[in-house]
Amino acid sequence: MPLLSIVIPTRDRAPYLAASIATALQSTDAPLEVLVLDNASADNTRDIVAAIADPRLRYERSERRLSMRDNFERGLRLAQGEYIGFIGDDDGILGHAPAAVHAIFDNPKVDAIAAARAHYYWPDLEGGRRGSALLPRGEGMELRNSRQELRKLLDDSDYYRLPCIYHGFVRRSLIDRNSKDRFFLSSQVDIYSAIALSMAGVTFAFSHAPLVINGGSARSNGASHFGGGTAEERNKWKQEDDLGFLPGFDNHATVGVLIVESALRYAAAFDVQLEDIFPRNAIDQAMHREHAARIALGRPLDNFDQAAAAAGSTGRMPQTGGALDRVRRLARSFSATMPIDAAARGVTDVKGAADLIQGLLARGRQRNFDRPGEQLRIALRIGRG
């Protein structure tokens, strides 16, 4: 069986790392390596890895601090597997995932695997989500065309339902075919990989049941930019970023506008138009939502017109139905995912969350409204933020 590389980039996050590694190593059903990319950590990251006695675990340290995209690029060079997937150092892999990945890739037509993600919110996360988890209710797997799915991306900005190196699994050959001097041409490594790989027009498998747990902690990059994380983490990311944002995108308030920014970088590198990636009306709506979000958050608008012009959009359009839209999103989320009070069930880290979720999946509990009071209570708590 070909080797699967699970790559975990990390930087000064030793308190989370051991649990993440433990989830990746728990499977013994398929050949894999777990590659930890230490980005010049100043804490005890090296000791955490050294304490884990497993020959499948590899540790590679950079002695100088790299940008996120450079560290991810290094991971592509160092990974030895025919199949590659990245997770964060506060994320997790479900126990059945490595064997499932190998089984799906047995189909030579499949170049990548995406899946609905489970979520675990670490106890240190700010806001109402901490100590909870979300489990997708879906089951089964289907084959999809990446270009067709990419055209729909700006409808909901869920780029993880596309081929994606982060929280997904990709054949190395697909990565190599879509690289120039390097693969990552944007600081938004997850978003960019979804766009670049999807533009190849490949067949990919989408699993309605989760393979990966998205961990949200106070140190998460995503949480630091969109709520629940620390300003210190956000500022550190900006200081280390070697590209910055295209003019007008630096005060971003929505994921949609970050997708547009990464798509613009891809379009420039591969000599295509933005409309070759997304429909014009979807681009305009993404910019309209960004404009409304900046106003709602009190962010400056002095350079917004630069971003809108780069996207070929007027950008400025009043948005209505904000509160109603939020209620609708929460209702859709509740119907698609099972809220769990992880803390009340004794879960304190992502390894505990992986064990809990694996057990629920084995018993088919995600299909029903098991513990309805708990589900409703956690859903309302998350909805209040």
CATH third-level topology of the largest domain: Spore Coat Polysaccharide Biosynthesis Protein SpsA, Chain A
How many alpha or pi helices? 16
- Please mark out the parts with pLDDT under 50 across 5 or more consecutive residues, or reply none: none
H/E element sequence: EHEHEHEEHEEEEHHEHHEEHHHHHHEHH
Largest sheet: 8 strands, mixed
Global mean pLDDT: 90
**Count of individual beta strands:** 13
Q: Do you know the CATH architecture of the largest domain?
A: Alpha-Beta Complex
Looking at the structure, what is the overall shape? Answer: globular
Distance between the termini: 44 Å
CATH superfamily heading of the largest domain: Spore Coat Polysaccharide Biosynthesis Protein SpsA, Chain A
Can you offer a commentary on this structure?
By secondary structure, this protein is an alpha/beta fold. It contains 16 helices and 13 strands. The protein folds into 2 domains: 4-216, Spore Coat Polysaccharide Biosynthesis Protein SpsA, Chain A (Alpha-Beta Complex), CATH 3.90.550.10; 245-337, no CATH class. Helix content is 42%, strand content 16%. It has an 8-stranded mixed sheet, sandwiched between helices. It has a 5-stranded mixed sheet with strand order 5-12-7-8-13. The longest helix has 18 residues, at 280-297. The protein is globular, with a radius of gyration of 20 Å. The relative contact order is 0.14. The mean pLDDT is 90.
List keywords for this structure.
eight-stranded mixed sheet; 385 residues; Glycosyltransferase; 13 strands; Spore Coat Polysaccharide Biosynthesis Protein SpsA, Chain A; 16 helices; Glycosyltransf_2; Glyco_trans_2-like; alpha/beta; five-stranded mixed sheet; Nucleotide-diphossugar_trans
